[in-house]
Amino acid sequence: MNYGLSTSLFAAERLNSHILDKILAVGLRHLEIMAARQHLDYHDVNQVRDVAQWFTDHEVTLHALHAPLFSDWNWGRSGGLLISVASLERRARILSMDEIKRAIDVAEHLPFRYLVLHLGVPGEEYDLAKFDAAFTSLEHLHLFAKERGVQILLENIPSQLSTPERMITFFQYTRLDLKVCFDTGHANLTGGVEASFRTLRERIAAVHLHDNHGEEDEHLLPFEGKIEWAQAIRNFRSADPPYPILFEVNSERHDPGVLARLPEVMARLEEFQN
């Protein structure tokens, strides 16, 4: 399988060649960058160009950029906007789209294929009006991204608005031609990985791989939680073309051994055959 890593593991640090070199050293050549301003400041063209130069020098693929979650440098703690394409407040929704477009514009210097985007925010309650708001936002962002060679992937997150079933309803309701980044940890919190996969299967274009114990969004490495990985991996192997499989481990764990354990985790996952 095509394994890679989200730089969310280092999201509390400024992204630089030292971090990227450490990722490359464990054999991962498919990356997703977290567009958090304390990590990759997508407003700062100099940092974007520096990171782009590293990718050019090392012939590494930037598979995706994860859309920003907040507009500030500190996960919203500094009073930054909580970014949501489904906000019912028009001004907040416009500001959210502006911030997302700034992130998409990274592709001018640092090309990437997918923008991974949340439909609303974690824990959000369902409201049909939020579907209308998200449709308005995504219709605009879809065209903006397409002009820059980027495809938007919606990620299933733990909320009433973004359960796998509601995401399918949203696609049917809006008729938007969008694909999904299937998140295993989030699926485990909203109906189970197997059931969620069956629901979203025809829309999946990429996978976020992480584990939990079924109660909190812990972003653990596979085999550290309670997800049954054998069937999940067999499902992912059945995809044609294959999905990029991106490990998404939370930076808040402060676990320096995560990268060192990744080769062993990948070897165990490879033991599951079709």
Describe this protein's structure:
The protein is an alpha/beta fold and 274 residues long. The chain has a domain at 1-124: TIM Barrel. The protein has helices spanning 17-25, 45-58, 90-104, 128-146, 164-174, 184-189, 193-200, 229-237, 258-270; strands at residues 2-6, 30-34, 61-66, 114-118, 151-155, 179-183, 204-209, 244-247. An 8-stranded parallel β-barrel has the order 1-2-3-4-5-6-7-8. β3 (61-66), α3 and β4 (114-118) form a beta-alpha-beta unit. The longest helix has 19 residues, at 128-146.
* Alpha-carbon distance between the two ends: 12 Å
CATH-scheme architecture of the domain at 1-124: Alpha-Beta Barrel
The secondary-structure class comes to alpha/beta
CATH topology of the domain at 1-124: TIM Barrel
